Amino acid sequence: MYFHMRYVFFIFILIATLANLALVVINYKYAFGLLLTLPLTLLGIRDLLQSKHNLLRNYPLVGHFRWLFEKIRPQIHQYLVESNTDGRPFNRDDRTVVYERAKKEGGIKPFGTEIDVYSDDYRWVNHSITPKHYDKELYKVLIGNEQCSQPYSSSVLNISAMSFGSIGAHATAALNKGAHLGEFAHDTGEGGISEYHREFNGDLIWEIGTGYFGCRTDDSHFDEALFAEQAILEQVKMIEVKLSQGAKPGKGGMLPGEKVTQEVAITRKVPAYEDCISPPSHSAFSTPIEFLEFLSKLRGLSRGKPTGFKLCIGERFEFLAICKAMLETNIYPDFIVVDGAEGGTGAAPLEFSDHVGTPLHEGLLFVHNALVGINAREKIKIGASGQIITGFGMALNMALGADWCNSARGFMFALGCVQSQRCHTDKCPTGVATQDSKRQRGLVVDEKAPRVVNFHHHTVWALGEIVAAAGLHHPTELCPRNICYRLGPTTIRTADRIYNFLQPGELLEGTDQPGYREFWKMATADSFDPALDWKETQIKFAPMFHDAAL
Could you tell me the domains of the chain? Predict the structure, then answer.
């Protein structure tokens, strides 16, 4: 009986087809029924005979429902199953607050929080009995040290890196128009400066990745002349070298050939409709000293504009090697953007998205501490990126050491992104992450650009309200003691009691902090390789590495 039940639907369709054939012999008008049953019968026979899918061989016709349900599962889960607080990577509450702020509908929540404030991962800001008044100031931070001749007054919230190619022309233009209207910056991503970045004259942070797109030679190396030609544009405010990306650190990228349209190819200086490959590492330098010399060259070619780099923290001694190179060469970047492992991407292997790279808070703390430890923190501003879309997210990261924050997916939501997670298919339903002109038609630049402005304005406004509630005047006054963490049912700690913080010059004088002292000894300005034998270091200092706290 079990064997026959697996075929019952197919047998029913087969009988219906035979019956329809018999009726057609009597009267051709009955052929209408065959239009339904005959294709299903042929499909069932194909299922029985094919050898690729064992499920279809055992369950002809019915087995196809498995693929149907799997295809619509994300939508069913998002709209009918998940609660307001359990969606990933952004829950419904997070997405809703962006949509509402983008449309100037307030972002107000009635009836109280749905978050379990007694859960172990709950965090909050300590407020003051004497809160300050917030006058809706659009906070700015000045980026550029004494080695920079054109410092940039940046917003505390900017558009994070999204390449033209990964996102479409309409999305790029809408983001840049919003940046221009709202007086904040738009990071180009590593895909180069397109005509859509230029159309509305919004401030640009030009990101240079391992593929040197837009400033590369025919053999894929860095081209100084092409770089200088674009770097001196008034619209380009800062230069950012991408060492790694949080969502896939240590791995290059690939833009599928179908997304490499003629426009994308011209922007990137690559062949059209061929897979566009970014190698894992840079060819312009191979040591920490060479890297800083490369940054200095870029700053010179751009006529003194702020120049820095973005990375996701991996091996600690490698970043400390860059710090030692700063001391040896006296070349200091103007800024460092720390990208967290929770950051977004158009496409990345599952293992890289889930298990490679340091999360933002730990990476941010390490970079902040390292710069403090070499007395360079005042010279170098720090940006933070990785799943930041609310005023609280900004306040938390600025309390842990960031001077400003970047957001990519927050601004994508403002454009209409619905988190369908089809970015890699070129079939984005809202026209954001696609090169398909028919799908891009759904995104109207003049309609969405104001929403980009609104999201930025109201998120910075929310940050200002939090800062004022804490009794402070500016986000730069936020510090670790302002943030509380629940570590258990009866255990609460402020961030300064959880994490270790270095004192100015502590690395230079010799620190006893676990996680810093031995990594500092392993670092050398001449190489990204460890100065000490790693196996010997593990044996000698294993207890320190085990107990190390950032």
Answer: 2-69 (no CATH), 140-475 (3.20.20.70)
